[in-house]
Fold each of these.
Amino acid sequence: MKSQLLVEAPTHKWIYFGRDPDKPEKIIDTNQYMLVTEHKALLMDPGGVELFAPMLANIVKHIPLEQLTHLFASHQDPDIISSLGLWDQTLPEAKLYSPWIWEGFIRHFGMSNITYEALPDEGSRLILDQAEVQFIPAHYLHASGNFHVYDPATRVLMSGDVGAALEGPNVSIFVDDFESHIKKMSFFHQRWMPSNAAKNDWIARVRKLDIEYMCPQHGRIFKGEQVGQFLDWFEQLEVGQAISNS
């Protein structure tokens, strides 16, 4: 698994994890992100149970394990949070921030020690030392309860499944050519995103944010003008493909 510094501010930094060459062939490739402050850290969408060992090995290269105090799950999918039972034994004092609607489902992955912090539909904020992040509503994209994480200081939006692409593990972590990247995103967004109304609501919300890095949970990271290119492309895309094709 690769890990590298993504961006750094005076009070905190973002670290990227992904592109694991040793993952099982039929397991979808995922990206994980960690925000690190002086004394605390927030691990976002920590991954499936099969990623726990490589994630743990890479995290301790960057911070002592006791500094990992907070987890975030954008929604309930197994590639997002099925490792929870193992983190629950490793980080018994941690807090998990996730949509209120999914608590009864996420607890099936195993949760005896970690505290569940249920996010209200309208979103909320989290302060870690001197850093503050916002939990941005992204409902129905693709889960009925879904959130993204925005950091105004570094202008990073962790965008979950929005912006995701399906490609191999041995590619760059950044989009290098937006037009050629479209064909890797189209099916995923048309099939996994069920609602044009929800899509447009999210786009209107996100256009008000100052974003330099848009970091999805699959595929590559968008930077600079590519963020606007993605929003323009996504806005004109008709989603809910399975319904329209039935």
Note: The chain has a mean pLDDT of 95.
Amino acid sequence: MAHTPDQNPYNPVVNKKKKGPDVAVVGFLVGLLFPLLALILLYFFWFGDYTFANYISMFTGINNSFMMNNASKAISLAMISNLIPFYFFLNRKKYLTVRGILMASVLFCVLIVLYKFVWQ
């Protein structure tokens, strides 16, 4: 009794199932979460002499151009952390999730442009 390649239970390519959801919303949330966690880590390593309230006001205080410049730098560095989930999901062929991570990255890029050129 011969099996066709589609019916072979020992063929790893045919029987490989996708694990986990492939949804753009999951990627968008992950794409927002990783840079936010990186911003918290940046506070401890780069802005340790600030209080946490001053660090948060750096992102919300639009009237100080020096703080806006530092905020855009911090967000730019934090966006590097999106490479971790990007390549993780790309290697697992979760292309919709990767698309969500890219959408979140574009949102952060728009925020950086606003900090650098509009609000400053």
Note: The chain has one domain: 24-118.
Amino acid sequence: MQPLPQKEKYEYQGSSLVVNAPAKLNLFLLIAGKRPDGFHKIDTLMTKVSWYDSLCLEEGSSPGIELTCKGEYWAPEDESNLVLKAGKLIFRELGLSEPNLRITLRKNIPAGTGLGSASSDCAAAIDGIDNYFSLNMSHEFRHYIAGQLGSDVPFFLGGPISRCTGKGEKLQKVDLSLSGVMFEIFLPDFTCSTAKVYSFCKHSQKDYEEKLEAVNNALKQGSAEKICKLGVNMLEKPCFEAYPEAEEFAKKQNNGEKLALSGSGCAFYRFFSINKLENHKKNAKIDNYSALGGSRLVSSNSW
């Protein structure tokens, strides 16, 4: 198994613009309680990784934004897709007519896995439209658009690693090197509903404070390895309660090591030092992989 290669954010193909949209992993995820609006307060450290969807922007044949979805995994082509929502919202907020624009979204990352691909696709649409039409949108406007569309979308406009609080929209830059770390992402043959997982979430202030102290101590030491070893995700228990098959899958794949859950699931991952890659390949245990595509070796994205 070879690691997936890093890609540049933009690729130009003649008059078309391709924007790559990376997946993310949650290196820790804390639940800090519930907000008055019903959303949960989170505190999470996220990193983009070298597994990408892509958006191709090119001139359309008629006025308006047209979305086509291709690739290994399904995505909707109507306005339930955040890519199309982002395009329409941008031009509406700018008071401009929709241009002749065709967007082709190639889905290489499955949705419903805790890898943030829909949010990343949305951020790529914001960046791509800004770049393709030379709109020169301000930082504030871009983040306003992102915030209207999803809690994780602002993260994908920045990066490559940020601590995200609030609903996930408040970003804090973190000085942490992941250059020597690789991740193996495991995908079972089912997906998880974020809403369902959160519905099983029972907040414990004591548990939150203990885990917060542990991750803050690891951050103070600047140790990516210690953070990854902690594997703190307060949605893991709710995920296992909502989807017992997720706990069973994690136990089958752990190879003697605890796997970490990304987001609300169902993707799990383990980390290891890049200088131990060959040893990892020899000892890797592959079991029970099916529809969603098994595992991927990735590194932290560089942008």
Note: The CA atoms of residues 218 and 227 lie 6 Å apart.
